[in-house]
Amino acid sequence: TPSLVVLISGSGSNLQALIDAREAGDLPADIRAVISNRPDAYGLERARAAGIHTEVLDHRDFAGRTAYDTALQQRIDAHAPELVVLAGFMRILTDELVNHFRGRMLNIHPSLLPAFRGLHTHSRALEAGHSEHGCSVHFVTPALDAGPVIAQGVVPIEADDSEPVLARRVRQQEHRIYPLVVRWFAQGRLQLDGDTAVLDGQPLEEPVRL
Ligand code: GAR
Fold first, then answer.
1. Which of 64, 118, 153, 168 could be bridged to 173 by S-S, CB 3.0 to 4.6 A?
2. Which GO-annotated molecular functions does the record name (predicted)?
């Protein structure tokens, strides 16, 4: 079975979705380790409860981004994972780290990329007056939130939506689509070819709407 390392910074609800999919027999992969840059991330408890090895690599213990990412790369490589899964890992990564894991690092982002890269995506979608919003799973490449998008979960924006209501609606889709995309990778169905995501041998001209 292919092995995964999952990186988190917070609640870890997407990690939980992967754990649940694994336990339901829907994710043919072994979660080798969960690494957090924050010692208090609740996701660490979720991992421990599932019997998964956890590590904390606190960014405050490092002089800068390069030093941190060099250490992080070593920690990940120690587990020799086939895939690195970013699940709410709230750090900008150096090009060196991203290139090292090119084609084997996925991220989930709470918007319909290329719309709303970066932070505060839900309030920005509301302010923009969009009628649709959602989440995207993409291969990680050096430009922030700009790697090839594999799949998206789409939700409507209702007239009376508040930020937390919309965030919750998107989060439900995240929990649905991330395990599906990780499963594709684990099954050998998904690759990165240059700057193009390839699913079942077909270059994806647009993201799969799941
Ligand atoms: C998720 O909504 C994820 O899309 C987002 O952080 C949240 C983590 O939640 N990621 C980013 O914004 C990445 N820039 P979780 O810890 O409960 O999985």
1. 153
2. phosphoribosylglycinamide formyltransferase activity
78 Cα to the center of ligand 1, angstroms: 25
Give 89's DSSP letter: -
- Give ipTM to 2 decimals: 0.99
Q: How far apart are CA 179 and CA 175, in angstroms?
A: 7
Catalytic residue among 53, 109, 122, 130: 109
With a 6 Å cutoff on the Cβ, whether 133 touches ligand 1 is: no
Degrees to nearest 5, angle at CA 41 with 173 and 76? 85
14 touches 178 (CB < 8 A):
yes
Looking at residue 206, its pLDDT comes to 96
Length of the chain: 210
37 is known to lie in a ligand binding site: no
Phi/psi at 191 (nearest 5 deg)? -140, 165
Quick: pLDDT tens for 60-93. Answer: 999 999 999 999 999 999 999 999 999 999 999 9
92 is in an annotated binding site: yes
Contacts of the segment 114-122: beta carbons below 8 A, 24+ positions apart: 114/146, 114/149, 117/144, 117/145, 117/146, 118/144, 118/145, 122/163, 122/166, 122/167, 122/170
Q: What does the pLDDT average to over 102-113?
A: 98
CB-side exposure of 210: number of CA atoms within 13 Å?
Answer: 23
Contact (Cβ atoms closer than 8 angstroms) between residue 111 and residue 132: no
